[in-house]
Amino acid sequence: MLSRFNVFTKITLLILLLLIPVLTLYTYSNRESVKVIEHEIQSGTTNRLSFFASQVEATIYQLSLYGVSIGQDSSIQEYQRPDFAEQPYERVKLSVSILEKMNLYNAASKWHSEITLYFPRTRQVLSTDYYAALSYDEKQFDAPFPQAWNYEGNRFTWHATDPVSAMANPKSARLITKISFPIEHVTALLDQNKINNSGDPFLFDPSRGTIRNGSANETRIALLSGQLKGMSLAENGAFRAELDDTEYFVSYIRSKSLGWYYVDYVPMQQILSPVTSSRNLFYLSIAVLLVMSVAVVFALYRSVQLPLLQLVRGTKRLSAGDFSVRLPNAERNEFSVLFGRFNIMAQRIQELIENVYEEQLRRREATLKQLQSQINPHFLYNCLFYIKNMARMKNEQAVVAMSLNLGEYYRYITRSENDLATIREEVRMATNYLNIQALRLERMRFEIRIPDAMLEVTVPRLTLQPIIENAIVHGLEPQAEDGEILVSGSCEDGIYMLTVEDSGVGMTEEAMADLQRKLEKPLDQNMGCGTWNVHQRMLFLFGEGAGLRYARSASGGVRVTLSWLDKTDE
Asked: Which helix or strand (DSSP H or E) is residue 127 part of?
């Protein structure tokens, strides 16, 4: 009891000692949170302003691009011809077509703009504005055109010339394009931006004043404009400003097209007030929690901590493999049920582990039997038909040879008392099988080269036959000329290899790679089971690295290599 009381005392003192660092950490965290929120306010304001600026710039860029590209239109090129002035009917007809194209562009554009085309050589004017097309005023082309949009009469105007070099001397141009739009389009975007956000965006120019949204705070914007005029503004930036005894965060971006500044501002303290209230509430809550913690810590220690320690120790022993661990009955509470369930679980795990070991042994034997039994019966049917045909032809020698080889072959594959066989036995069975196929095809030759040192090595029964069968069926039978099968063996650095090569039709690299991938996947209805069984049995018996590998044969067909590591010394 004394030991438990000492632990309880230590926990209580630890809580008290942690109070000061917790309060200090929270104060620091609160300050950092305020900084993060301020940064998010600044980042959000800047991002919203950047998005608004990109909207305006994108629309203005489309207008500018149209002003540059309109001169390449074939109708306008034809309208500029000096001799075209002598054809009044065609000229009027073509002018109507050009105006339709310009009006169609206006209908598809986000902003309705005024587009005017001047033809200095023919002194003609085409415009979407009826009054602008009444006369050709040559005086307006005395001065060079500015490279940027110009603000005049509550409209933004931009000129383009064809050729571009005529911007300095507009009277020498073949075509002058004038595009203008009213500031109402910009005001509408400002209103939309204000509805979706908490700022008050506007456009500012030191010499021309401001363009404001429809519900702008005139007083604040006037004060802020006065501050902006006294500052040296960069291409973009942000700063804090004091307006009406309230701190605001102001961000601005200079428009590359218009030359004006996009400006937006948001109040700081109004957004930070919930953080301040949350801080005060935390200090009150921490005091209440401290009192409550002292009252419940002792009860928690006795009712929770001690049973948990027993449960942890039992779990560690269970994870270490000691399945005989059992927990003593605790007091009458929730842990007594948990301890009882733990004991039942440990007992069942112990029983399951024992059953799993027995099941693994039975499954291993059953898997080998099942894999060995998957043999295509179609081969037997072909051999029986061959015997029938040879008997009709009175070819007694062929019938005897086929019957003897077939009998030896099936005597071997139907033996199930041993799952393994020596390579000598596999070679003998493969020879019988090849003799049978040679009798059937009459144009097949085969050769077997196995070193004597390998003949007593054991492998799974029916290892060679499925590989040789694939070589004959898919390699030799599809071709018209004679074919050859070569079976060879070797051993290098403790790795045994059996190779089956054919001189058949061969396979592409992609087909062999696909076949190699299928060997590692579960067997499905679209795959032959012969070579898949061989590969899986080799993996099952000899582990990773064993199995089949496909490659191109030097004789033009396919080379299948069966390799495995010699484990006799392990």
From this structure: strand 124-127
| Phi then psi dihedrals of residue 134, to 5 deg | -75, -35
Q: In this structure, what token pair is assigned to residue 47?
A: 């991002």
Close Cβ partners of 457 (under 8 Å, ≥ 6 residues apart):
422, 423, 496, 566
In a domain, 204, yes or no: yes
How many residues does the structure list for the chain? Answer: 570
pTM over 0.70: no
> What pLDDT, on a 0 to 100 scale, did the predictor assign at position 311?
79
Buried b (16+ CB within 10 A) or exposed e, 475-494: bbbebeeebbbbbbbbeeee
Q: Are residues 198 and 177 in the same domain?
A: no
Q: CA-based angle 165:57:130, to the nearest 5?
A: 65
HSE-up of 463 (CA within 13 Å, CB side)? 34
CA distance 214 to 220: 14
- Return the CATH number at 489: 3.30.565.10
Q: Domain span at residue 341?
A: 321-372
Asked if residue 191 and residue 177 are part of one domain, the reply reads no
Q: Are both 196 and 177 inside the same structural domain?
A: no
Residues 207 and 133 reside in one and the same domain: no
Domain membership flag for residue 267: yes
How far apart are alpha carbons 351 and 354 in whole angstroms? 5
Query: What are the 10-residue block averages of pLDDT along the chain, 570 residues in total?
Result: 52 72 77 76 80 84 80 75 68 79 79 83 78 66 82 85 83 84 87 80 89 87 89 87 84 87 82 71 76 71 73 80 75 73 81 69 52 56 79 82 81 71 90 84 87 90 86 86 90 91 90 87 63 82 87 90 75
Last residue of a domain, one of 372, 402, 437: 372
Amino acid at 305: Q
Residues 266 and 325 in one domain: no
